[in-house]
Design brief:
201 residues; alpha+beta; 2 domains; 49% helix; flat
């Protein structure tokens, strides 16, 4: 903590809470006592108010244990955008992560719209990956469309950008975690359980 940027107020003796008056800009470092994860926090002024941005030293965001590196990179970028309230930018990073994910699953067409068309064709032909039975394909399409809306000018209609907020980010993040779990984590858990059961024979 930079003492030059932090002025301590008298402690509230009833609640035993110490308050701080922070002058922007200020930089702090945080470490989790349980997992040793560390973050850098930046307090900065924006349009007359104080804003807080958090940046992890580890890959952040909706990343699971077996997420491919390319997908994890863009999910981390989405989380970094979100941490500084750049939610439109975060949605474009989710779109890129989705494109990497589908490519990892064998859909190598370009651009992303053609990957989704190939996925839909595979579903109709009964040749889609097994995980599609656990994920509604509409969720995949809506992540793409949200990313498109965030990245494009939409004929100058900024009202669409105004709808992009932290709540929407969390919804997309949760959807991505469900995707990653269905594609990469759940099959491994099932396989491990089967091996454990066989080993018990």
């Amino acid at each position: 903590m930079q003492e030059s940027n932090v002025e301590r107020e008298p402690a509230n003796t009833d609640l035993q809470i110490r308050q701080f008056v922070i002058a922007a800009p200020a930089v702090f470092s945080y470490a989790c006592v349980q997992c040793d994860a560390t973050w850098t926090a930046l307090v900065y002024g924006s349009q007359g108010i104080l804003e807080l941005a958090l940046f992890s030293e580890q890959l952040g965001g909706a990343v699971t244990v077996h997420t491919p590196p390319g997908v994890a990179f863009y999910l981390d970028q989405a989380a970094r955008c979100h941490s500084s309230n750049a939610h439109s930018a975060a949605l474009t990073m989710f779109r890129s992560a989705l494109e990497w994910l589908l490519e990892d699953q064998g859909f190598t067409e370009s651009p992303l719209g053609r990957k989704l068309a190939a996925l839909e064709k595979a579903i109709q032909a009964g040749k889609a990956p097994k995980w599609i039975a656990e994920v509604d394909p509409e969720f995949v399409a809506v992540i793409k469309n949200l990313g498109n809306t965030a990245a494009h000018t939409n004929a100058g209609d900024l009202t669409k950008q105004n709808r992009v907020d932290a709540e929407l980010y969390r919804g997309v993040e949760t959807t991505f975690l469900e995707l990653l779990d269905a594609i990469y984590e759940r099959p491994r858990r099932r396989q491990q359980r089967l091996e454990d059961l066989k080993n018990a024979l």
